[in-house]
């Protein structure tokens, strides 16, 4: 007996099958490719998402014949929705980019309700826009799509529906829409009224782990799934990732070191919303019952290292590829062991919470003719982590403490990066046996929802294995504390003098 988790990402789909003990049995990945519809905006369309998911499921099902799949669940990004006709046909997609295109509607709702009241209802910062901004943009620029659609679904709801299940949305994904009442666990009538959006097009709501039915017989036969394979409601990809790393209670946080850097702390009670709001932080339901998360992120993560490699050392990158090596591993190996004398300001792309919508630019201060390439690389990593360290301090001021991090993403393979994270955050950092935790988290939801595990605690204990722990080193902690103070003092000056920067989201 086995479990399947499917992670629908921004660029592709990954499916993972595990045993009940957490042993990986099969995995597959497919990229979506660009949209084929009229918009031609480079966003993946819903048909391609479904095709990629179907191919992944068929591949891992074929490789798991000796261990029949009991249940599957799906994670989804909050930024992508699809639309179905009243008859259930895919007729369009909301995409990943349109949420950044129009904030007129969220601003109107904020003016009608007040920023703090909007935050009190949703737990989201008005500048985030959420699905609210996306739907309003579509109403303005693609009115026919919104008018003819019977309903909109997140990608995981779409795939579950096409597999034969109910098209339901869980609380964690709903929390990212700017339309959901966090406390009442229902779509907010006040926000819908202020926005003018129709409530009838919204999906039904239920907690993650809810049974959605079984894979239909024709689809199961086509994809090679066993008869009666259960469909279990998944959730928000970052919440599923936190689960896949074992971050399921207060005091723990996930740190994803990928193209973005993301910090996702868990907490067991809703703090004073005025404190969260004042610190520029948001909150959402976890996929774990009665647990909540906040999401802090910067787009200046691994994307900055990619820029460095592709722009400054393209020849070395090509040579590394020819040798079957990683240019990133080689660049990180050049970093000095001690903290650098440089101070990098990590805003090479727009920041998220706790500085969502603020206007900055990036840079490195302190460069000299003696500065090495390894120092520059390390300074960039240090600057990115100062952003998260500032977020950790703001979380503490809002009553959310972090005692330990679990790391995932491609950067979690690097001992140097994880040790740097421990030193700057002054917290232990643990590496688990998986770098891509969202598919595992989705599989664990499938296990709990199908009663293979009694609860999420049992699921994590059976499957999530810590393989190494990095402790903060007191000598470097003290030095980084001083550097962080310099970083804090410099940010207001940077905002004031930046001549060219990313515009505020609003």
Task: Tell me about this structure.
This protein is α+β, with helices and mostly antiparallel strands and 506 residues long. It has three domains: 234 residues, 2-Layer Sandwich (Nucleotidyltransferase, domain 5); 128 residues, ATPase, nucleotide binding domain (Nucleotidyltransferase, domain 5, 2-Layer Sandwich), CATH 3.30.420; 115 residues, Nucleotidyltransferase, domain 5, CATH 3.30.420.40. Helices cover 40% and strands 20% of the residues. The chain contains 19 helices and 23 strands. Strands 14, 15, 16, 17, 18, 21, 22 and 23 form an eight-stranded mixed beta sheet that branches. A six-stranded mixed beta sheet has the order 3-2-1-4-13-12. A hairpin with a 3-residue loop joins β14 and β15. α2 crosses α8.
Entry keywords:
single chain; alpha+beta; Nucleotidyltransferase, domain 5; 3 domains; six-stranded mixed sheet; 40% helix
